[in-house]
Each structure stands twice: as C-alpha cells, then as structure tokens.
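Entry 14. Structure prediction run on the chain below.
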Amino acid sequence: YRYAEAYIKKRQFQAAEQKYEALLRKYPKEAKAALDWAGLEKDRAKYQEAIDVLKKRILNYDYFNKDALSLMGNVYLDWADEDPKYYEEARRGFAALIQRYGYRDEFLEGMLLYFIRTDNLKEVKPLLVHFMAVAKPFPKASTLAELGGYLLDKGPIEDVHAVLSAAVAKDPTVPEVHYQLARYFKRISTPSEELKALNNAVNGFGRLPLLSRPQLCQYLDSLIWRGNRKAANKEFVS
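Output returned:
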C-alpha cells in the first residue's frame, strides 16, 4: 500500500496499478486493494477498467459487498458525464443498496449526487434537510461542495453558506470546497474573502497528484479567475 500510494503521489499511475495487481495476486480477497485500485481508475476517467476491477476482484465472490457496489455507483455517475445512459446504472445501483441494506446515509449520499447531476432540485431538497439536520453531516466534503455549488446555480442561496461551512468543518483540505466558497463570496460581494478562497482553491488543487475532469475544470477556472483579479488590482508579476 505504501508503495502504491507513493507512486500515485509521484504521478506514476501505471506503477501503482502494478502494485495493486501484485498485492491481489498474493491476497486475492484483499478488498481494500481492489477498492483503492478501482478508485484510482475512476479518478483517471478509466471507467470501464474501474468497473472491471470491482467485478473481477470483489463482486464475483462477494456479490453484495456494499463498499464495492457504492463505489461502482459513483463510477457510473462520473461516467455519465461522458455518456448520460450511465445515470440509470448509478440510480439502480444506489436503489439496490438501499433496498438491501436500508436507508443508510452512505447510500443516500450517492442518491444526492445522482439528483444533483440530473438536476432534480425537488429530490435534492429533502436530502439537504436530512443531512443538515445533524451536527456533523455525513457526506464527504467534496459532496457538500458539489451540493453548495448546485444550490448556487439554482438561485436562492440561503442554505449555501451553511452547507459550505459544514464542508470546511468536514475537511478543509478539499479544494472544491474553497472553489465554491469563492463563488459564494463573489455572489455576496465580499472580495477579500473571495480572493482568500481562490488562493486556497488554487493551492489545494495544485497539491493533488491526480485531478478528475471536474477538478481540472475548477482548477483552470480558479487560475484564470485569480489572474484576472490580480490584473485588475495591478498585482503584476515582475
């Protein structure tokens, strides 16, 4: 695991894949290795490869493994950005998990992302209420950032600050959170906080060894946005 993670940090992804494959040859039922490998393929937008790893390395012998099925749902969600037919695969996967294991927050989080990405505000709202009703919301900081960004896009922003504040409390190192905070502060005309959030976003994205397509888009937007702000303030680089 240390070798694989070190290779990922060095952006040597093929070497990391080889380490996971070697680990699974020795310990065929080491589910964490398969999950980490599939997660790497997902982040690299190698969606079919991620699905193949999950099926071959886990689901062939543990068909109802909730971690594998949940990750598969998220792979299909990302894949649907390229081909919308996979939204239905994601929905069916999360619905099957809920049917088998009950209304657990980890599966409701998947449904929340599905409703955000299929632009179903009517279904997003009750899940927003559900997750924000607890002191420490379950969803990952990246999910809360996506929720905050979606609410910004849809108009009324009364819940946005609470959602993004919860995301910061959950994990302040997630750059998507700061990107959406910059958008929020721009909307409410707070330029000093906007620039601070932009700096945090740029620095955070720059530290990641691997950027997904949405992260890359946000990173580029943050760089251009910050550059325009600095140019407007005549903060030129000599």
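The two ends are 44 Å apart (CA to CA).
Filed with the rest of this week's runs.
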